[in-house]
Amino acid sequence: MKIQGHPWRTVWLNADAQVEVIDQRFLPHELITAVLPDVASFERAIREMWIRGAPLIGVVAAYGLAVAMRHDSSDTSLLAAQRTLLATRPTAVNLQWGLARMVADLLPRPPQDRVQAAFALAAHMADEDVSMNHQLGLHGLALIREVARRKPGQRIHILTHCNAGWLATVDWGTATSAIYQAYNEGIGVHVWVDETRPRNQGASLTAWELGQHGVPHTLIVDNAGGHLMQHGQVDMCIVGTDRVTARGDVCNKIGTYLKALAAHDNNVPFYVAMPSPTLDLSVHDGVREIPIEDRAGEEISHMTGLDAHGYLSTVQISPTGTPTNTNPGFDVTPARLVTALITDRGLCAATPAAIAALFGPQPQPHFASAD
Ligand SMILES: CSC[C@@H](O)[C@@H](O)C(=O)COP(=O)(O)O
């Protein structure tokens, strides 16, 4: 998508053939990029959320293995890099998926062929992410067009949570892909952007990227969604996901579940945009089986933003010593609250039968243990 009119992706190979990313920690206030020269820098970039969002984590991790091969293309180096990167964030299945796909391709090759093959596959995965997101956006677009037909001349209000925009992917985004495509064809969309405490990905990232593209939007506090739904001000919710189970449970940023409950209570359709790599057929009961990332308490007790002089600064908002040791990064929305999954293969009911029919059995990936 565009930043100040110029097309960008979130990850690319620069003129020196180094992997470069947008360092999202500084958005929306500063647009800073970072070069990732070795596995340690990839580990930091994923763990400390310089880059984030399930699809992007998968692709950046794939590039991390390519860079590892450049330094040492042995089996030992490949598997060690896989283990290191796999341990960075537990919830988004795309991380396992991206690493496993790379290892399955590289391990059978002689070490001297691995660097070229690794960069080629990582680039292919980046391009594939872009086309899958575009494709699933077309299926979401059909849903938005349908609402537009029922409300001629009126705005279509779409609520989204966290950032499942292009910054969470290589391009287009998942939840935002349909929104960008609807906007591009002149449909009057308006997005309610949940701020998404504690890290505020909605306020800092979704609001920024929608604004850069010109999509009308309003930032709301996380607690406002239910009220807006009760007053008929939300036509549909579209969120992204970090992992969908074989029976259709959806893991996504903390707070998604509450939005799904409110949507259910108010007959507002609740859609989940899911590219194929985010489906994990090895998991059924999302609440019991998906590992939920436990994050630092400072995300609750502190906030970062611009101060009165325009400098980025961090302030404490809770009393010194208040316990903040419970900070789950994600929650699971049970399948029964999901109206449909918007996937690159088409719309899919969040049921075991519909998911199996559309996605079939997955080949077993080659996973290294994270411990
Ligand atoms: C297309 S991204 C879907 C999800 O990854 C997104 O909504 C989300 O939960 C991101 O979490 P984050 O912790 O910022 O990586």
Structure description:
There is one protein chain. This protein is an alpha/beta fold. Helices cover 39% and strands 19% of the residues. It folds into two domains: 2-127, translation initiation factor eif-2b, domain 1 (Four Helix Bundle (Hemerythrin (Met), subunit A)), CATH 1.20.120.420; 136-359, Translation initiation factor eif-2b, domain 2 (Rossmann fold), CATH 3.40.50. The strands form five sheets. It has a seven-stranded mixed sheet with strand order 8-7-6-9-12-17-18, sandwiched between helices. Strands 13-10-11-16 form a four-stranded mixed sheet, covered by helices on one side. Strand 14 and strand 15 (312-316) form a beta hairpin. The chain is globular. 5-S-methyl-1-O-phosphono-5-thio-D-ribulose binds at residues 52-55, 92, 162, 164, 168-169, 174, 201, 240-242, 252-253, 329. Keywords: Amino-acid biosynthesis, Isomerase, Methionine biosynthesis.
At the third CATH level, what is the topology name of the largest domain?
Rossmann fold
Average pLDDT, all residues: 96
Strand-pairing-aware structural class: alpha/beta
Rg value = 20 Å
Trace the largest sheet across and list its strands: 8-7-6-9-12-17-18
- How is the biggest beta sheet arranged? 7 strands, mixed
Helix content: 25-40%
Order of helices and strands: EEEEEHHHHHEHEHEHEEEHEEHHEEEEEH
Count of individual domains:
2
Unreliable stretches covering 5 or more consecutive residues: 366-371
**Number of DSSP helical runs:** 12
Alpha-carbon distance between the two ends: 37 Å
Instruction: Give the CATH class of the largest domain.
Output: Alpha Beta
CATH superfamily of the largest domain: Translation initiation factor eif-2b, domain 2
Number of strands: 18
β-strand amount: 15-25%
What ions, cofactors and ligands are bound? Answer: 5-S-methyl-1-O-phosphono-5-thio-D-ribulose
CATH architecture identity of the largest domain: 3-Layer(aba) Sandwich
Binding site for substrate: 52-54, 89, 201, 252-253
Protein name: Methylthioribose-1-phosphate isomerase
Family: Belongs to the EIF-2B alpha/beta/delta subunits family. MtnA subfamily.
Pathway: Amino-acid biosynthesis; L-methionine biosynthesis via salvage pathway; L-methionine from S-methyl-5-thio-alpha-D-ribose 1-phosphate: step 1/6
